[in-house]
Amino acid sequence: MKIKLSRTDIFTALLCLTGTIPGIMFYGELPERIPVHFDINDQPDNYADKALVIFGIPVLMCILQTVCCAYAFEREGEKVPKRARFVIRFIIPVLTVLLETVTIMFSLDRRIKVGTTIMIFLSLMMIILGNYLPKCRRNSTFGIKIPTTLKSDYVWDKTNRFAGRLYIAAGIIAIPLSIAEMFIPAVTILISSVIIPIGYSFIVTEK
């Protein structure tokens, strides 16, 4: 299979590497061990070496982005709207830069709210993805991809329209909950919005 990368693919892959910038800027001020995971109370519960966090993670995400661009984003062609494919390409790079920045700022005691920042980002992603789900035709790359939807255009369309509205609603509701640091309700709502459409697809199939 021939690998083909567009300028946007290359740009987004390199964008992942800019996640090293915050760490490089404050390298001398950072502790040798940096938090890489936080519990529900916004407290770090796992650490990694400074060099690995600053350089290793962005490089790994750059490789992941390149693989996704080469083998996934363009595989279904026009079945996924061009604008949706463009937006999807930026999820990994933006997430990489955001996580690296938040982690570095937390390590410098800048009082940044890690949980709130990440939850707001996820909520916005749900809103954006929810906007594009109803516009996608049946494919194996983007959408609610389960056996019931992949076998029928009708079930695919009904399920993804329903999921799109649910994703948007869940994202809108989760944002104020995240700002209020009500993380458990916010996470529950986001996860439910992903699970419910799967059950809905079986209902549509039976009908």
Question: How would you summarize this macromolecular structure in one to three sentences?
Answer:
The protein is mainly alpha-helical and 207 residues long. It is 67% helix and 6% strand.
Walk me through the structure:
The relative contact order is 0.12. This protein has nine helices and two strands; from the N terminus they run ααββααααααα. β1 (33-38) and β2 form a beta hairpin. Strands 1-2 form a two-stranded antiparallel ribbon. It is mainly alpha-helical. Helices cover 67% and strands 6% of the residues. α1 packs parallel to α5, α5 packs antiparallel against α6 (114-132) and α6 (114-132) packs parallel to α9 (183-206).
Question: Which SSEs are present, and which pair or pack?
Answer:
Layout (H helix, E strand, L loop, with lengths): L6 H11 L2 H6 L7 E6 L5 E6 H22 L10 H8 L1 H17 L6 H19 L14 H4 L2 H27 L3 H24 L1
Antiparallel strand pairs: 1-2
